[in-house]
Every structure is written in C-alpha cells, then in structure tokens.
C-alpha cells in the first residue's frame, strides 16, 4: 500500500494521477492507466458506494481522493472545487504536444488530443460534463509556447490547412487574434508565408482579421504585398478594398513596398483598384516611383508612369526626384526610361543644389556611372554651377540697380530737405513783407486822416469868418 502511494505521489509531481472507482462493497482493483495518461490526460471518478474501499490518495493526509482533470494545458480540480492550470511541455520552446502535432501537420494526433470526451469519466451531469470538456479543450487550444505562439499559429505558419480547420472548430476570438512575440497573429503569418488557402479559410471564419496590425503597424495586405504573394493580396482585397488606405507607421503603403521589391503583378493589381495610390507619399515624401527606381525592375516604373506620368517630377523631402534617386542608385535602364518622358526636367535641383549630373559625377568610376553621365549629357544635363551662372549675373545686375536707386533716393532726400529750408525762409520773408506793408498802409492812412482833419478844421474856420 505504501509503494502504491509513493508511485501516485511521483505521478502527481509529473502532472499525472491515477484514481480508482469503487462500484460495490467488493471493490475491484484500480484500473491500469490508459494510453491517454501518457499525453497528460486523466480523470478520476468518485466512489459510488459508501462501503467501498478508498482509492489511493496523493498524500496520506487526504481524506478522499481529489477529482482531477489534467491536460497539456488543462485544469486540475481539487477537493474544494478550485481550478488550477497544469501545463506539460516539451522541447526547448516549451511546446505542448498540440504544438508538436500542429508542427508536423499530424491531423490524427491533433484530433486525439482534442478528443477530451473519451478521456474523461466521472459522475458529473451531462451539462456540467460538456461544460468542463469545453473549458479543458479551450485551455489546450489557447496555450502558447515561449514565443507566444498557439497551435493554430504554428499550423498556419507551416501551411497545414487540415490542422488549421480542425483547430478553428475550438478557437475563440482570443485565439484568432493572439499575437506572438513578433506581433504576428495566425492570419498575418499565413499571409507572410503565402499560404493562400489558409488565409481564405481564416477570412471566411472572421473577415475582420484582415484589419489586424503586425510589426511596424503593417497589415496582412502590406506584408503579403512586400513578399510578392499575389493570390493572398487579391484574396485580402476581395474581402475589403479599404485596406489600400492603411499605411505602416512610416506611412508606406502596400504599393510602396511592392514597387520597391519589383512585384509587377501586385503593383498592377493595386493600381487597378486605385490609381491615385501612385501619388501617396511616406514620411520622407517618397512616392511609389521613388521606391521603384531604387529597385531593378523597369516594368514597375513603366506601370507607375502609365498610371500618372506627372509623378516623375514630384520631389521628396530632400528635393530628390525619381531621376536623382535612379542616378544615385546607378539604374541605367531606369534613367533612360525617365529621360524619355516629356515632363522630365533633367536639370532639377535638390535641396542641396545638385543636379542629376552632379550626382553622377560624384559616383565612383564604373561602367554604369559613365553610361548615366553620357545619357544625361545627351538630354542637356549640366552641373549646378553652370546652371547658376546666368542667375549670378542677373543677381549682380539687380544688386547694382538697387544701389543706384538707393543713391538717388538719398540725393532726393537731401534735395527735399534743402527745398524745405528755402520754402521756410520764403514764408518768413513773406510774413515780414506783409507786416511791413501793413505798417506802411497804416502810416499813410494816418497821414491822410490828419490831412482830412486839418482841412476840415481850416474850412470850418474860414467859413465862420
């Protein structure tokens, strides 16, 4: 009896426990653990008869055997009904057996692990039994390894469509949107790996998954476009075309990344749905054309220019047009394609006052740089200092005119000052003249008045006489 108890204690330390059920007063021996126990699944039933012998307990102090339910990541129900999570893992990433089965694509093993019903016995009612089975199964499916990956994530990454379908039967919203440490969820990782069928199954299960965000705020569409998975891109757009409007944290959209990688079919598919995408800029002011000329696929450049030829002269934040970027990257074929456009300005200046020819001459000597310089010169390219020579002469002329006008204004100012002084003096003289004239008139008037008085006096005198 002590040996049996010791064995039970060792099993419990591993997450396993065996318990027997006594059906009558003549109890049968405890049943041999089934193969399911090796997978970490076990149930123990309570005694049905009061006269039955007690089953081996995990510890000498236990009065009655605890009812236990154990799984890879399932629950253990102790005597008080408290639920504790128990996890059995293996491998360096602490994968559960469900993870390992999903990695292998072993559908039979996945079904066996998730077939909780056949691995449980007990006295619970039907409703309680079903509820407990559902909880255990959900716990198993939602378990993650050290990288934060669920079994569904693992199956989606490896491309095991049948395993994905089986796991979806028992997956809730939490399982579907759960991200690993790299911020990928099952749909996003399937889109990145190009598993079109799995993407389709997941979107049919929940179309809203297409709007989840991964690293750098990238959507599954942006990730699939950058990787060149045309079928996945078309599948995502068929479910929600508004995904085209969503950009990464650096404001690059799906067209930016597909253009940079030279994915012709994806660029075509994106432009067919929205030609205005060609004008969208990222945080550096770059259009999809700026990104395309950094690559080596001239067909992508042609597609973008067919959508909107005027974008060839759109500068980024540093004043670089597509021609400047293509020259710096030594893309001979693309430079030739750009120079054939009627809207091109071969001598456009960057913010640091460089033309495409200046950039070409700064390149290390090579066959490509020589071809680009020759091509630029053929279309009238010049250096920035040559381009600015007439401008410098004009600047000198304008400066001289400005100086002459300033001198004339100063002379006019002095003349006005002199004229003002003269006018002031004249006004003074005028006032003095008026005063003098007034005094003279007063004197004359006085004299006349005196004469009149005298005449009147004498006339009166003679008249009286």
UniProtKB/TrEMBL annotation:
InterPro entries: Ankyrin_rpt (IPR002110), Ankyrin_rpt-contain_sf (IPR036770)
Disordered: region residues: 1-74
Main location: membrane
ANK repeat residue intervals: 147-179, 182-210, 250-282, 284-316
The protein, known as: Ankyrin repeat-containing protein
Segments of skewed composition (Polar residues): 19-28
Compartment(s): Cell membrane
Membrane topology value: Multi-pass membrane protein
Keywords: ANK repeat, Cell membrane, Membrane, Repeat, Stress response, Transmembrane, Transmembrane helix
Top-rank taxon, per record: Eukaryota
Segments of skewed composition (Low complexity): 50-67
Cellular component terms per the entry's GO annotation: plasma membrane
């Amino acid at each position: 009896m002590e040996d049996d108890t010791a064995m039970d204690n060792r099993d419990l330390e591993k997450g396993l426990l065996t318990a027997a059920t006594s059906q009558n007063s003549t109890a049968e021996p405890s049943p041999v653990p089934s193969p399911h126990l090796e997978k970490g699944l076990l149930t123990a039933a309570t005694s049905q008869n009061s006269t039955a012998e007690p089953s081996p307990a995990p510890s000498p102090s236990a009065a009655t055997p605890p009812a236990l339910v154990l799984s890879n990541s399932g629950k253990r129900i102790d005597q008080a009904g408290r639920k504790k999570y128990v996890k059995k893992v293996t491998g360096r990433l602490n994968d559960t057996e469900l993870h390992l089965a999903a990695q292998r694509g072993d559908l039979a093993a996945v079904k066996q692990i998730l077939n909780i019903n056949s691995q449980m016995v007990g006295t619970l009612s039907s409703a309680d039994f079903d509820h407990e089975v559902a909880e255990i199964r959900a716990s198993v499916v939602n378990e993650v390894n050290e990288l934060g990956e669920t079994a569904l994530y693992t199956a989606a990454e490896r491309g095991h469509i049948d395993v994905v379908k089986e796991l979806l039967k028992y997956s809730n919203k939490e399982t579907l949107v759960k991200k690993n440490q790299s911020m990928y969820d099952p749909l996003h990782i399937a889109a990145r790996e190009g598993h079109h069928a799995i993407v389709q199954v997941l979107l049919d299960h929940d179309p809203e998954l297409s709007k989840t965000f991964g690293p750098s705020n990238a959507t599954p569409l942006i990730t699939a476009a950058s990787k060149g998975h045309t079928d996945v891109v078309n599948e995502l757009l068929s479910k929600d075309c508004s995904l085209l409007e969503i950009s990464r944290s650096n404001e690059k959209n799906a067209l930016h990344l597909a253009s940079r990688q030279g994915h012709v079919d994806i660029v075509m598919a994106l432009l067919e749905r929205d030609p205005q995408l060609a004008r969208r800029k990222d945080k550096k002011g770059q259009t999809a054309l700026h990104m395309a000329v950094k690559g080596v696929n001239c067909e992508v450049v042609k597609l973008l220019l067919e959508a909107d030829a005027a974008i060839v002269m759109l500068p980024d934040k540093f004043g670089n047009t597509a021609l400047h970027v293509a020259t710096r990257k030594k893309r001979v074929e693309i430079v030739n394609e750009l120079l054939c456009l009627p809207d091109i300005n071969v001598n456009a200046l960057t913010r640091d006052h460089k033309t495409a020819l200046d950039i070409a001459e700064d390149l290390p000597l090579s066959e490509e740089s020589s071809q680009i310089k020759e091509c630029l010169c053929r279309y009238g390219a010049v250096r920035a200092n040559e381009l600015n020579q007439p401008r410098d002469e004009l600047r000198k002329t304008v400066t001289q005119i400005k100086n002459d006008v300033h001198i004339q204004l100063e002379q006019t100012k002095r003349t006005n000052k002199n004229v003002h002084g003269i006018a002031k003096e004249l006004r003074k003289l005028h006032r003095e003249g008026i005063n003098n004239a007034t005094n003279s008139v007063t004197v004359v008037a006085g004299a006349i008045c005196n004469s009149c008085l005298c005449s009147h006096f004498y006339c009166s005198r003679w008249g009286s006489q």
